[in-house]
Write a structure and sequence with these properties.
This protein is mainly alpha-helical. It has three domains: 1-168, Serine Threonine Protein Phosphatase 5, Tetratricopeptide repeat (Alpha Horseshoe), CATH 1.25.40; 177-315, Serine Threonine Protein Phosphatase 5, Tetratricopeptide repeat; 320-394, Arc Repressor Mutant, subunit A (Orthogonal Bundle). It has 19 helices and three strands. A hairpin with a 4-residue loop joins strand 2 (350-353) and strand 3 (358-361). It starts with 13 loop residues before the first helix and ends in a 9-residue tail after the last helix.
Length: 394
């Protein structure tokens, strides 16, 4: 096999998403479709037509409440897996006994790929490492490391994703081609999203818009959706205009993602009431159902509110509470409570005069005694609750 040819080492990254949705009671509206798609993927996944996936190893890791459609399904899938693996072992043995006439590394990569595809992490990782040792070509070696990254993503092992990304980067610096270099950008972007680094994720996703080939991770429509989501926090207003709203790739798909389009356009066009309405829909439609983004949903919503408040205050030295509440389509009491939290945490530079009902922009150094006291109380409470707080609550 030529070095630039990719062994189809694939794993269906949609399946963990379905499991995540089925575990969340707040997503009960998605449960019926998620359960159907999960078991169809396990039984009939067609990501690689050359193999019939039959994901018995993965099915055996599922929570006990996720019962298969039939009681003998997993046993049937397991028998098919062992049958396929026996064929790979026979090919490898024949190659090794050919005394150099046949290279066993290709069959070893195929076996590793199959183990990845059926979700057999315990056997896949040693198989990848064994194939790596027997493989000479730098391109095929990079493909094996990328497969390890996908397997770590599949099982949500962030530390292993990070380690394997570093290994892939080192290999690519030694001689990786343009395609693999560009695909790795998307892998890195997904990892950055998973650890709440929207700025780095947005930069990498935007840079990959016109060169996207990482279809083993997600389809192009989903890639564009993630790009717009990341840009909401990761890009300033000027970059949103030049890199998102002016992007031919994104504009072509805007009719298919009206909620995200409304979010990013309303932020740029300073239509804050529309932004707040879109943000609520984005949280329900894109953030909460996605296991990568769900832990950061509250953070995302909060940061978008901070961005909107900061943006409107850049245009005014002061404005009335009534005017600001109308601009955002919420009540004055909501603006008062929401802004007070952000002022106390030094996220928004302004003060609120409740007597006159006026919000006045300040420099970062100007502090109102009332908010300084509020901040001290808030920080003391944070310190007290720190050991009990979830990452998603930060």
């Amino acid at each position: 096999m030529a070095d630039n040819d990719s062994v189809p080492i694939r794993i269906n990254l949609k399946l963990p998403q379905y499991v995540f949705q089925l575990q969340e009671q707040d997503l009960s509206n998605l449960h019926e479709d998620a359960k159907k798609s999960l078991w169809e993927g396990i039984e009939k996944d067609g990501m690689c037509p050359a193999w019939s996936s039959k994901m018995a190893p993965y099915a055996k890791t599922l929570p006990s409440f996720l019962q298969p459609p039939s009681s003998d399904l997993i046993a049937k899938l397991e028998a098919k897996n062992e049958e396929e693996l026996k064929k790979f072992d026979e090919k490898i043995k024949a190659a090794e006994e050919s005394l150099g006439e046949t290279d066993p590394s290709e069959s070893m990569r195929e076996k590793a790929g199959y183990l990845c595809q059926i979700g057999d992490k315990e056997r896949a990782l040693p198989a990848i490492d064994a194939a790596f040792e027997k493989t000479a070509g730098i391109g095929a070696r990079i493909d094996l490391v990328l497969a390890k990254i996908r397997l770590a993503m599949f099982y949500n092992e962030k530390s292993r994703v990070e380690t394997d990304i570093k290994e892939a980067q080192e290999l690519i610096e030694k001689g990786g081609d343009w395609d693999r270099r560009n695909r790795l950008k998307v892998y890195r972007a997904l990892h950055f999203l998973s650890i709440r680094n929207f700025k780095e994720a947005a930069d990498l996703l935007i840079d990959s818009l016109s060169t996207y080939t990482a279809s083993e991770l997600m389809d192009y429509d989903e890639f564009v959706e993630l790009t717009v989501l990341a840009a909401g926090i990761g890009c300033d207003r000027a970059a949103i205009k030049t890199k998102i709203l002016a992007s031919a790739e994104i504009n072509a798909l805007m009719p298919q993602m009206p909620v995200l389009t409304s979010l990013i356009k309303s932020l740029y066009d300073t239509k804050y009431a529309e932004l707040f309405a879109s943000l609520a829909e984005v949280e329900q439609q894109y953030l909460m159902p996605n296991p990568i983004l769900a832990p950061h949903a509250r953070y995302y919503v909060r940061e978008m509110r901070v961005k909107a408040y900061t943006q409107i205050l850049e245009s005014y030295q002061s404005l009335t509470m009534e005017r600001m509440s109308k601009a955002f389509g919420v009540s004055p009491s909501f603006i008062d409570a929401d802004l007070s939290k952000f002022i106390a945490n030094r996220r928004v530079s302004c003060v609120i005069d409740k007597v006159s009902g006026v919000i006045t922009k300040t420099s970062g150094a100007q502090r109102n005694d009332k908010y300084s006291l509020y901040e001290q109380v808030l920080n003391a409470g944070d310190a007290l609750l720190n050991g009990k707080r979830n990452f998603s609550d930060l």
